[in-house]
């Protein structure tokens, strides 16, 4: 395409992936405009960005909204919105994607590519114990590793495959990241739980105990920096040889919480202690008053406590019973060379960013100040 001729429609624009993507697109000359679908006010501003409100459930209202708000010029869809729970049985996220693409087609939009994010739940990580012989989970051939449905990831993928086979003019791609590390106030954010839990331990004078099962403390895991994920989705959208397929993606390393935990404790300036399983979903809400006091003490941003703690997701994350990681060879062979990050550095980077944004206290800076 010619410079400044690409127009992105980004759903879930205020979420962890959406915010990272918006910041990246704004700085790329080839993207002339971004239609950002979000209900809450976006913290990113640019003359390129137009925030739009769409009813993704009502096809007629959606078509009308797209027609009136720049839909006919859209060349790329990045479907990052999510609705549902940890079971992945709610099909709403898939239905939204299908509704959007079909509406754009009817409007005659010059649609070229559709991207959507899946995740580790494609392989059933949310269902509990699995046969370790299947790990690392492989994304080749397509549809490998599926469990007994329902799982809306399968609906998305099957729909995209069928549409292309029937002659759709656009191509598609998808990634399957595990835990995504980055800033947002949306659902399923591992970083924010670590940040909130570590701050509470620091302020209450408690050591940083791993709050999950002792077994999960030592299993192998993976995650991905949201900025790396954003680079990957843009690379996929711009690489025809990689189109019409799904890819595992991660930082590039594997980690055990037992290896990462001392680095996290060091950032907060507290000691570690042996793991102690805590029912986070019932324990974390009891510290809302404490968090208010912390927020006032350090003049932090007034963000709802439940948006930060996210105990239900965290409880699942820290109780993974067995090794849980994917094989990313397919993405590397396709040509994407970004998976070169150390997870320890990623967590430290984002804890520093949260401190910079006044979401948690800047403990490293406070220690430095105290030493001078």
UniProtKB/TrEMBL annotation:
Gene Ontology MF: a single term: oxidoreductase activity, acting on the CH-CH group of donors
Pfam families: PRISE (PF22917)
Domain PRISE-like Rossmann-fold: 73-361
InterPro entries assigned: NAD(P)-bd_dom_sf, PRISE-like_Rossmann-fold
Protein name: PRISE-like Rossmann-fold domain-containing protein
Protein species of origin: Coccomyxa viridis
Lineage start: Eukaryota, Viridiplantae, Chlorophyta, core chlorophytes, Trebouxiophyceae
């Amino acid at each position: 395409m010619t410079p400044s001729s690409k127009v992105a429609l980004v759903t879930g624009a205020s979420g962890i992936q959406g915010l990272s993507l918006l910041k990246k697109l704004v700085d790329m000359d080839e993207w002339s405009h971004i239609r950002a679908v979000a209900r809450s006010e976006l913290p990113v501003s640019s003359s390129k960005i137009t925030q739009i409100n769409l009813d993704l459930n009502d096809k007629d209202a959606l078509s009308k909204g797209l027609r009136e708000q720049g839909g006919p010029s859209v060349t790329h869809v990045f479907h990052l919105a999510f609705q549902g729970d940890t079971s992945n049985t709610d099909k709403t996220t898939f239905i939204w994607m299908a509704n959007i693409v079909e509406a754009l087609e009817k409007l005659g939009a010059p649609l070229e590519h559709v991207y959507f994010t899946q995740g580790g739940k494609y392989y059933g990580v949310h269902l509990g114990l699995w046969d370790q012989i299947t790990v690392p989970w492989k994304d080749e051939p397509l549809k490998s590793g599926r469990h007994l449905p329902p799982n809306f990831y399968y609906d998305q993928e099957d729909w995209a495959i069928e549409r292309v086979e029937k002659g759709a003019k656009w191509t598609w791609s998808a990634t399957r990241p595990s835990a995504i590390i980055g800033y947002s106030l949306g659902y399923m954010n591992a970083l924010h739980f670590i940040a909130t839990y570590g701050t509470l331990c620091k302020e209450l004078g408690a050591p940083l105990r791993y709050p999950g099962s002792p077994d999960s403390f030592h299993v192998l895991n993976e995650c991905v920096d949201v900025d790396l994920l954003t680079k990957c989705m843009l690379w996929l959208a711009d690489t025809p040889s990689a189109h019409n397929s799904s890819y595992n993606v991660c930082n590039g390393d594997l980690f055990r919480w037992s290896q990462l935990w001392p680095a996290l404790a060091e950032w907060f300036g507290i000691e570690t202690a042996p793991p102690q399983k805590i029912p986070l979903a019932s324990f974390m809400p009891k510290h809302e008053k404490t968090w208010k006091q912390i927020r006032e003490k350090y003049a932090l941003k007034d963000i709802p406590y439940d948006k930060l703690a996210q105990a239900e997701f965290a409880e699942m994350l820290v109780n993974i019973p067995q090794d849980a990681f994917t094989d990313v060879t397919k993405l590397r062979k396709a040509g994407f060379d970004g998976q070169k990050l150390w997870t320890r550095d990623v967590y430290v980077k984002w804890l520093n960013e949260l401190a910079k944004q006044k979401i948690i206290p800047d403990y490293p800076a406070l220690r430095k100040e105290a030493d001078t």
